[in-house]
Amino acid sequence: MRLYFPVAQADVIEVTWGNEKREISISEPDGCLDLIPLRIPKKTPFTIGKAGNRFLTTTQENLLELEQSVQLVRCVPCRDIHVEGETLYPIFPTTTFYADDAQIVLFAEFTGVNYCLPITVSWHHEGKLCFGAVTEIPALDQESDMEKFVRSYAIGISINSDTPRGEWEVNLQLLTGRKLYRTHVRILNQKRPRYGESGTLFRPKPEGGRILDELVE
Q1: Do 181 and 140 sit in the same domain of this protein?
Q2: What is the spatial order of strands in the sheet that 151-158 belongs to?
Q3: Cα separation values, 197 from 73, 92, 172, Å
């Protein structure tokens, strides 16, 4: 099995399982991690991280099942989200953002999340990877063949004075490389026209949406 991470330059990540630990080099353009030489049993949990920081824990068997079961219900870029219980709702869906917007949030809904689902999100400007993230979406244990449940999730990047203006490409895919969504958004130089807006902004929780700052420039 091969896994794919968003990276802008060569780097080393750690793979651990049981009492075993390996350091593996990955590099652009696809950040491919080949698990075949490691001979990890399909049902054995393994953890991927870097410098002691954990990114995700899964099994090859779960990843193969998720490859078949996961379906993207919808995905939209937006300025904000509303949280109601365990459900998220997008606020101000748009592909145009302004210099004084606080962030770009990518909101997504999935079915078939029978196990903890690792996904990657990459943000490209003028063909260059600027931000890459790997995150885990918690499983929906109650889902069955007869009834499907929707898991909502959101991850974002901040907009500040150093954020490049112009067109961005945003990609969402499974860790196995299956592409789920691609879109383009624009960040303009001017400030947003004021027509009344929410004061509550999305803030990612510490356990989700880890940005791999150490893997990108």
Answers
A1: yes
A2: 87-93, 71-84, 103-111, 151-158
A3: 27, 9, 28
Half-sphere exposure of 111 (CA within 13 A, CB side): 11
Strands 96-97 and 179-187: parallel
How is residue 64 written in tokens? 């193969």
Q: How far apart are CA 108 and CA 76, in angstroms?
A: 7
Residue entry with tokens 């940005």: 211
Domain with 82 in it: 70-215
3-state secondary structure of 67: helix
| Element of type H or E holding 184 | strand 179-187
Strands 32-34 and 103-111: unpaired
pTM of the model: 0.82
19 vs 72: CA distance, rounded Å: 36
What CATH number is given to the structural domain containing 141?
2.60.40.1930
Render each residue's pLDDT in the chain as its tens digit; 217 residues. 999 999 888 889 999 999 999 999 999 888 999 999 999 999 999 999 988 889 999 999 999 999 999 999 999 999 998 887 767 889 999 999 999 999 999 999 999 998 999 999 999 999 999 999 988 988 876 655 556 788 888 999 999 999 999 999 999 999 999 999 999 999 999 988 765 454 444 444 444 443 333 333 3
